[in-house]
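Researcher: We plan to redesign the surface later, but first we want a full-length starting point. Tokens attached.
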């Protein structure tokens, strides 16, 4: 062990020990609940079930890429991915736009009671997604909603509208969460920039457009990546909506497709779907991140 002139352990050694104290618990939990499940899913996706005869016992054997071939031939699975991509193309920009507007309003000196509104905007995020979906499901139901005049005129639970009804639930829950991230980025902007802009005669709108929004682009990118990942993992809201409408099928979203496949049970095919979905999420998120980084670097 390295020691200093007084015979005590060197500072570098003490720092390594402190790092180990903090990193070992995280590493153990990360390995136990993240690395091992991923490894097991990949292993399970390489297996297939064989039977000896018509009524023979089912035996799992190594099947190579058999399950992945079945995934790429599964039209319902890819239809569900296309559905959530359409969902994300519409819902994510609307949600982030609303979050940005609310964050700018909270950061404006013209708004009074920002603490109250900050809590009010964030409050829906404290409601679990399942509870929020149940609440909105009752509001959408023509026979249960207190707004019967609206729900009888517009069928929010029809096959054509249910995807956007779910989008409204997701937006209501997560716009406050994204607003808080963007608002935190706004608070980190030096006040000297605002003072210099005011001396040049800039008003609040010009400050927002020329200073605030460009400087919170990294926060917008971060919330955008989170939203893309959440979109492809959509499960709780459509699963709850199955109790309110038959328009939400067991293959409505990729995660619902995986869940219903595993319930058959066909664990190996569900594991292969999970791996493909995880890779698709990674590729899409990484592509969006690189594209936004190139644009901000120009």
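Model: Full-length starting sequence:
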């Amino acid at each position: 062990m390295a020691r200093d002139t007084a015979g005590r352990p060197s500072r570098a050694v003490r720092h390594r020990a402190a790092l180990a104290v903090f990193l070992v618990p995280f590493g153990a939990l990360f390995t136990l609940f993240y690395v091992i499940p991923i490894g097991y899913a990949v292993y399970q996706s390489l297996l297939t079930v064989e039977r000896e005869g018509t009524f023979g016992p089912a035996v799992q054997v190594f099947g190579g890429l058999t399950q992945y071939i079945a995934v790429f031939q599964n039209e319902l699975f890819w239809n569900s991915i296309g559905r959530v991509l359409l969902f994300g193309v519409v819902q994510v920009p609307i949600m982030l736009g609303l979050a940005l507007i609310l964050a700018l309003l909270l950061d404006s000196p013209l708004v009074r009671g920002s603490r109250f509104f900050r809590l009010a905007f964030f409050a829906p995020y404290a409601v679990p997604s399942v509870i929020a979906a149940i609440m909105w499901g009752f509001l959408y139901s023509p026979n249960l909603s207190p707004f019967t005049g609206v729900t009888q005129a517009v069928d929010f639970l029809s096959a054509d509208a249910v995807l956007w009804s779910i989008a409204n639930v997701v937006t209501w829950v997560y716009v406050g969460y994204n607003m808080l991230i963007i608002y935190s980025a706004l608070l980190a902007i030096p006040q000297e920039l605002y003072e210099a802009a005011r001396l040049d005669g800039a008003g609040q709108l010009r400050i927002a457009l020329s200073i605030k929004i460009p400087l919170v682009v990294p926060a917008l990118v971060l919330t955008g990546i989170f939203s893309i990942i959440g979109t492809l993992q959509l499960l709780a809201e459509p699963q709850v909506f199955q109790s309110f409408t038959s328009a939400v099928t067991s293959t409505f979203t990729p995660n619902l497709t995986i869940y219903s496949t595993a319930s058959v049970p066909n664990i190996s095919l569900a594991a292969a779907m999970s791996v493909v979905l995880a890779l698709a999420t990674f590729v899409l998120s990484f592509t969006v991140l690189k594209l936004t980084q190139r644009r901000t670097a120009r």
